[in-house]
Amino acid sequence: MNPAPEPVIPVRPGTGVRLRVWVWWIVASYVLLSVLWIYFSDQALELAVNDPAWRLRMSVYKGWVFVGVTAILLWIVLGRLGREIARGDEAVRRHEAEIERLTRFYAALSQVNQTIVWSSSRDELLQRVCEALIEHGRFSLAWIGWHDPASACLRPVAVCGEEDDYLKTFQVFTDARPEGQGPIARAFRAGRHYVSNDVLRDPASKPWLHELQSRRLRSAVFLPLRQAGAIVGMLCVYAHETDVFQERELALLQEAATDITFALDTLKHDEERRRAEAAVDNERRFSATMIDSMPGILYFYDTAGRFLRWNRNFELASGYTGEEIARMHPMDFFAAEDRPLLEARIAEVFEQGESSVEAPFLSKTGTATPYFFTGRRVVYEGRVCLLGVGIDITTRRQAEQALREAQSRLATVVNNLREGLIMADPAGDFLEWNPAALDMLGFSDLEEGRQRQRDFGELFALQTMDGEDVPPQAWPLARVRRGETIDRLELVVRRRGQEWTRIFSYSGGQARYADGRSLAFITLRDITLRKEAEKVLRESRDLLEKQVAERTEELQGALVRAEAADRLKSAFLATMSHELRTPLNSIIGFTGILLQHLAGPLNEEQKRQLGMVRGSAQHLLELINDVLDISKIEAGQMTVRCAPFDLREAIVDVSHSVQPLADRKQLELAPPEIGPGLDVMVGDRRRVEQVLLNLLNNAVKFTDQGRVILRAEKVGAFVPPGGSEPQPAVRLAVTDTGLGIRAEDQACLFQPFRQVDTGLTRLHEGTGLGLAICRRLVHLMGGTIEVASEWGRGSTFTVTLPLRLQAGAGSS
After folding, report:
1. Which among 60, 55, 35, 57 has a CA at the least distance from the CA of 45?
2. Residue-range definition of the domain harbouring residue 587
3. CB contact at 8 A, 522 and 493
4. Is residue 281 included in any domain, yes or no?
5. Distances (CA, A) of 357 to 297, 339, 494
6. Pairing relationship of beta strands 673-674 and 707-718 according to DSSP bridges
7. Which distant-in-sequence residues (6+ apart) come within 8 Å of 397 by Cβ?
8. How far apart are CA 650 and CA 682, in angstroms?
9. pLDDT band at 277; cut points 50, 70, 90
10. Does 195 fall in a domain?
11. Model confidence at 482, in pLDDT bands (50, 70, 90)?
12. Distance CA 19, CA 800 (A)
């Protein structure tokens, strides 16, 4: 890479000489013409004109002619001289423009060379080259495309100038495809530059003519860039003027491309050197880290016993500092009684190449730790050394001791198991029976059983519970050795030639160790007694089934009789319903007529007695109705209707019907509080009113002072008993300020013919059927009834019913 030379501008030869010749020629011609004219004209006048006056006048005319001729000659001469001067000025301007252009080229080349010196990476170099060409060379656009061998495409890696997304309008491919036939691709494949001093007239630029015109790009040059002798990219430079890239300019750009190639090679070599240095440094750090991070101790020492290198764990395990270890001998870390063995192993390493030994390692405090040492002969820094590694085997020895203890405990457990246990490897080389298994098979002498355990195929015969013989290859042990799993397999075992029979339950499979080996095992339980008990149980079950069948036949007869009695009860209730209600209604009606004075006036005593008669008759009628209702419900004959009705109206009607009873006791029966959305309910209005009327009557009956109130509100999501889908419902709550109900009495509230013993039971009439009927009616309508009460504070009975009773849901 050479510095840019000073520009040398050629000057058109002969320009100054011609100007001087023309000046002397004009002067000489004028002098000669003037002398000749004056002399000959004067001589001619003297010869031709004798009159002095005419001669004087003709002299004047002669002077005018001389001036005219001189003017014509001067016009001709000076015109030619002016044209020559103009041609010289044009040449000077062209020379000045060429000087300026070459100056810019040299400035750009100089800046490129500086960029090459100061750039530290390829991308930085290429970008700064483009910037130097634009800033100092004053080109319109400069970009560098880098070759991608995988896609055979030139990808822009550096660009500067009036790019205006020009590079996005095309893609340069370097192979022979149609997109790779442009001037850039051809120059890349040919390995030489391509110059177009008028791209608009260049046929090779025709596909990009519109883009070039819109960006006013008129001339271009494309130069290949090389790295390690191979073409790796293209330098593309554009200008707004035509005929920019002449021989001198092209030579300068080629020199710049050569310098860039040199810089790319240098950067590549520098990068390879840095990578090599980094690899060496990484390898050095990795080796040091690996040595220091090894779980054991690592060390190097030569044949004289001088330590050359050791890891951090060596210092930690020994308790010595690095300076102390450097002055110590390897035998200083071992007790005197262990040194002869260690010296023999060290000599073996230097003679044979490697060896190993287990020995206690002494720390600075005198603590001895068991270690397993391995040594290998190596050459380190030109010297034969011992590379040693020591592993703390304290944990291993503890594990070995724990394993021995575990094996001892396992043997104790196996030998004392109450169940039989058989263990074997799948290949059959190992077979072990525990004492319980041999005892189950009838061996009183366990040693005899262990000696003959491989001959059990000749001693025993196995059968299924159905009496089929089991061949030896299908015995449980043979099956688990093949990899099968058996679970509670019951077989009959007999000794050949003896009256000895047992029933065993076999379970087993294969257990796999961590190292991949397998162990087949079988447990066997003697279930002979259990099977005998099952046989007795089966016989007892057969007897019980016979007794159950007889008892079932008796119960079926009782059921027929009960159904007949139920039909008789239903007929009796139907008859009693008519026979009792008819006279009671007559009594109630007739007493009403008398009390209305329709049969004549009555005195006060008569009114009182007739009122008692009518009240008793009404009470008896209510009692009969309750008994009939509870009977229908129990007989499954009670049904509820499913029809829409005005719930708000029904609540108000029930409240009005109870108002007289509250007035007689001077109680406040508050107007019903009815929430929104309770206008229509689909259900049985009569049964809903019956439930509300019963609850309000009870509230008024058992409240001596205070108030009674009925509240109704809509519930958004209610799941009926036995249902799964939530549905809208109404919650009806009757609250009173009466005596309340004790917690222990609330459990029997809804049982038939039961009244809570408040001490005042006989003060209030009732059969104890009202709440029982309410509860069963509510259940028939798909709802629930609950009570919340506090003794001495009052009670609240809450009924929740679906707003839409499903058809058929109310059939009992």
Report:
1. 55
2. 529-637
3. no
4. no
5. 14, 11, 57
6. parallel
7. 370
8. 12
9. confident
10. yes
11. confident
12. 130
